[in-house]
């Protein structure tokens, strides 16, 4: 996931500082924070609507209260090295919390009680979670192919752990939605620390080495589809690949988000990584459909494969034609460039608005996962702040609003143009400083979904971020997004319900969306 505190969002830019600030905004805005007139009548949940919470493996597994750390923690990922190595943990340009893995919520040990809370305290019928590639394959899989050969390399302990999770979910009546890769990479694919220290010469380059990572992650996707296909039908290949990986990894790490390797203005690497993740999605899609031979829910459909993308509700700052174009450019760079490629096969490798069709990328998306956290207005700058990155970056993002849940409706309406089913795969707010803030957010975003469904848009689910407080990447445990609070200093990692738990449970019982409330 990709969230930030609204207090750091820039509201205006001046030309001499525009390069850094526009890049900063691209990272901060979507998670720091249109007026719609009519209020829709209440709408019932459609059949098979998924209602639940979303979590990610790296963020929740570590911090076990009783298991030994070397069992609980996955120490073979780039993110583990990123938060523990003094070269990155203490680097002021990476804005790391410095909190150790032991402060995490310990889902690796406590998953049974957490899933029980999801089902009974929240009334959920689904949970979105991710698999940790490096936990399943702590050693390289280069030169190995085929399920049987890969199974010999896979960690039996990791496979048993995930099978136990899925068995618990089946017992509780929870449908799993599984993210194959939620940011973290094996350290045999990506040397997070080495590439941060010497990007020009590091060897294990992660997404900046498409020839290595694309076939390997496709191989991993095929393996997990075969291994867990009898338990899982709904898959997401990647989470927020452009906003939370490409931008903070290769262009502008900042207080809002840094991501391995955390290097600045590596423009060609950013474009290579973007293309690599687009191609990787297509290859992962093919691999999952080829290897998932079972219908876990008995529907006859073996696999439904999507991707979770964070999308902004964008509007122009005025009716001026220049501001209208600036808003269109912002929407294209942030929302459409990546999504167009995976939904239609038209890929814009230069980020200049000129896309070409690649048939090997087309037709490889069964549904669109939407992560929503806010809206923004955009005005024209008059020139491109970084033309070598994109000639379209002539916009000034301003007035970011992360208290606008109703604008999810705008995002759903705009995204429906692809003609694909949609699922809200993440949405939520940081409770730090206001434990009741999520009450309005849940009502507003569920109301937006209800209005979209009432108008005939195909929205099949809603996942709130998150089930419990979790290790929010470079922020550690400082941000609090969970329905259940977790004190990082509590040795037992007890879960404490926030007020939003009862509200969510009430909607789950009633199976009716709240009325849509128009925004400002």
Looking at this protein, list some descriptive labels.
520 residues, two-stranded antiparallel ribbon, 38% helix, globular, 13 strands, 8-stranded parallel beta barrel, alpha/beta
SSE order and pairing:
Elements (H helix, E strand, L loop, with lengths): L17 H15 L17 E5 L2 H5 L7 H4 L5 H7 L1 H4 L17 H15 L4 E5 L2 H4 L10 H7 L2 H17 L2 E7 L10 H6 L12 H19 L5 E6 L1 H11 L15 H25 L12 E13 L4 H24 L1 E2 L8 E2 L9 E14 L14 E7 L6 H8 L6 E6 L9 H18 L4 E6 L19 E3 L8 E3 L2 H11 L10
Parallel strand pairs: 1-2, 1-11, 2-3, 3-4, 4-5, 5-8, 8-10, 10-11
Antiparallel strand pairs: 6-7, 8-9, 12-13
Helix pairs in contact: 1-12, 6-9, 11-13, 12-13, 15-16
Distance between the termini: 27 Å
- Which regions contain 5 or more consecutive residues with pLDDT less than 50? 2-25, 28-40
Major beta sheet, specifics? 8 strands, parallel, barrel
Q: Average the pLDDT over all residues and give the rounded result.
A: 93
Q: Given the structure, what is the number of helices?
A: 17
H/E topology pattern? HEHHHHHEHHHEHHEHHEHEEEEHEHEEEH
Helix proportion range: 25-40%
The strand count comes to: 13
SS content category: alpha/beta
Lateral strand order in the biggest sheet: 1-2-3-4-5-8-10-11
